[in-house]
Write a sequence for this structure.
């Protein structure tokens, strides 16, 4: 190849920089030139054309990167569409610098292939000298090698901008390069190209992380709430124990800064607890879901720096495999009932966050007991638990009861004013029972408190800052009330960060456990439920739920003088055939059980079964059961 004057000048400059002369080149370029001489033993005088690997080798390189190529395809197509009209070629190389994917102008195929801007071209520093791909691989940084920045003068007409793509474990996976055969002389002309390629690689890493860890928690971070859900800067995956198991490169750098490590050592980060970097643990992740407005999902590093965060929950199959841990307070609410166990698991997970919860359930199912258990399992357990029945306070008093009032706010007010129930809940939990019955005028004021975290007592001029966790409960359908205009939609979304539905008593399989638990609280002596009485309790459909069960037991205990609760101690209404659950059966076995429970009183058994006496006799005869006695 003939050496032109321009090439000769370039060779002289390379040699002078190697000899230690001052240069206007970027430091990264000068360092690469030195490596080319000292490490790779390249000679700037020996000009070499681009090297393209044989087809069989290219196939192996492509197969190793097949998953990433498929993941990146959409992003690469979109990027090429942006730059194609400006004469750029797009190349994706592996970590060895071999081009495994390529997009360029088909009419320039010969020129591009000759220049090495083509599928199969190897752009490692050891092979091609200082170049966009090779220098990016060595430094791990996005950079531009523009025209005469190239070590080999053969490539000096080119302008190459490259950015690394890191795998989810922090290792270098690939390099994305945008190159042009011809470009303006100033290197600054490639600044926009550098931004485009780095933005694309960040999105590719994000997509790879999301695809790899679909069944684990993923946390996405942004310093701008507006971009959190559309183009976050960082993302990481954590397992069920709260340990970091995957990350994008920007997250790798962030965590390394927090820990004071070199970002080139990802193994020092993987396996670390989330709480090593942020004031957060795995149980608090639900608080960072989209249930809350973006600007309220703030996450602080252990050094106090704030990020906006979005936590994406694992797929259900992963949740089922996780260790099911229930806090002590929540475990005391049920026996061996599967529905209550599932509820307790969810409540335990949600209890450690400040996410507002809506507790749904029929009247008497124990919504306040659940709310207290969640409070006692939370990080606010040392604070107060303030319960407010929104349906029980007269509308004329509810505003002053909730918000309090200032000194002399109205006639009859206390001289020193009064702290409202909301202020009393500061640093604890505020439980709003029957919130569906709250007047619309009060809903507006409550919404403002929840949004601004401060309240203004009646007659006061200065707001009071408050911090509390909100738990709300209702037996009504709030979506229906929103639809008919009796409940504010914005307030509904403020209190409904997550919904927990309490099963009715007739749906539960632990009625006897619950009955005996209540008995221990109602009397000081030991009283057990006999099998016949237990059978009756299990067959009733409990329209009043736990509250009705407690009332029934108080009635029965008043007549029970011994240590065993018998059928005759129970209220007559428990034998009402219209109130039997779906567990009622017409089988012979079922009839026999009822006869035993009713001590073979045919009339009583017929009433329990909801049939007439002749039907009971017919079933006895059909089954060949020997009747012990028959009393009317």
């Amino acid at each position: 190849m003939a050496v032109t004057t321009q090439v000769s000048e370039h060779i002289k400059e390379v040699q002078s920089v190697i000899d230690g002369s001052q240069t206007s080149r970027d430091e990264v370029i000068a360092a690469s030139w030195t490596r080319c001489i000292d490490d790779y033993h390249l000679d700037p005088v020996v000009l070499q054309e681009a090297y393209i690997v044989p087809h069989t080798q290219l196939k192996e390189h492509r197969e190793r990167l097949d998953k990433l190529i498929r993941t990146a395809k959409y992003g690469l197509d979109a990027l090429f569409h942006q730059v194609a009209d400006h004469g750029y070629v797009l190349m994706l190389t592996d970590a060895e610098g071999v081009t495994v994917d390529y997009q360029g102008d088909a009419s320039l195929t010969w020129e591009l292939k000759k220049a090495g801007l083509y599928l199969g071209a190897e752009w490692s520093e050891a092979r091609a000298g200082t170049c966009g791909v090779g220098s990016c691989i060595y430094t791990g940084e996005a950079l531009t090698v523009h025209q005469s920045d190239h070590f080999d003068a053969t490539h000096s007409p080119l302008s190459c901008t490259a950015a690394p793509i890191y795998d989810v474990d922090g290792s270098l996976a690939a390099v994305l390069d945008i190159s042009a055969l011809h470009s303006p002389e100033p290197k600054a002309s490639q600044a926009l190209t550098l931004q485009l390629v780095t933005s694309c690689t960040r999105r590719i890493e994000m997509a790879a992380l999301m695809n790899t860890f679909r069944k684990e928690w993923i946390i996405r971070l942004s310093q701008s709430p507006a971009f959190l859900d559309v183009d976050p800067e960082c993302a990481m995956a954590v397992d069920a124990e709260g340990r970091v198991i995957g990350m994008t490169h920007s997250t790798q750098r962030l965590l390394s800064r927090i820990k004071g490590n070199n970002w080139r050592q990802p193994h020092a980060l993987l396996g670390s607890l989330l709480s090593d970097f942020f004031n957060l643990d795995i149980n608090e992740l639900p608080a960072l879901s989209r249930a809350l407005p973006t600007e309220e999902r703030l996450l602080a590093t252990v050094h106090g720096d704030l990020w906006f965060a979005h936590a994406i929950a694992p797929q259900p199959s992963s949740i089922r495999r996780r260790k099911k841990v229930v806090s002590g307070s929540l475990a005391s609410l049920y026996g061996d009932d599967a529905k209550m166990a599932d509820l307790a698991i969810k409540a335990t997970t949600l209890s450690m966050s400040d996410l507002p919860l809506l507790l749904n359930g029929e009247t008497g199912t124990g919504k306040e007991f659940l709310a207290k258990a969640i409070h006692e399992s939370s990080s606010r357990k040392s604070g107060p638990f303030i319960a407010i029945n929104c349906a029980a306070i007269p509308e004329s008093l509810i505003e002053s009861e909730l918000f309090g009032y200032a000194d002399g706010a109205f006639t009859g007010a206390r001289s020193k004013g009064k702290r409202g129930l909301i202020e009393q809940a500061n640093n604890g939990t505020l439980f709003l029972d029957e919130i569906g019955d709250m007047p619309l005028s009060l809903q507006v004021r409550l919404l403002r408190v929840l949004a601004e975290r401060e309240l203004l007592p009646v007659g006061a001029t200065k707001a009071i800052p408050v911090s509390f966790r909100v738990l709300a409960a209702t037996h009504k359908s709030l979506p229906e009330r929103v639809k008919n205009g009796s409940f504010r939609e914005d307030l509904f979304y403020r209190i409904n960060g997550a919904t927990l539905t309490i099963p009715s008593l007739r749906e539960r399989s632990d009625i006897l456990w619950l009955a005996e638990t209540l008995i221990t609280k109602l009397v000081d002596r030991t009283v057990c439920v006999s099998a016949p009485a237990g059978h009756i309790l299990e067959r009733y459909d409990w329209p009043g739920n736990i509250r009705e069960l407690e009332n029934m037991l108080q009635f029965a205990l008043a007549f029970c003088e011994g240590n065993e609760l018998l059928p005759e101690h129970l209220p007559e209404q428990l034998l009402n055939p219209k109130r039997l659950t779906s567990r009622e059966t017409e089988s012979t076995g079922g009839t026999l059980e009822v006869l035993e429970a009713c001590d073979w009183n045919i009339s009583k058994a017929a009433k329990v079964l909801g049939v007439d006496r002749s039907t009971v006799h017919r079933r006895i005869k059909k089954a060949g059961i020997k009747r012990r006695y028959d009393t009317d």
Observations:
- The longest helix spans residues 191-212.
- The chain is about 40% helix and 15% strand.
- Confidence is low (pLDDT under 50) at residues 317-323, 582-589, 628-632.
- Residues 505-576 form a domain with the Helicase, Ruva Protein; domain 3 fold (CATH 1.10.8.60).
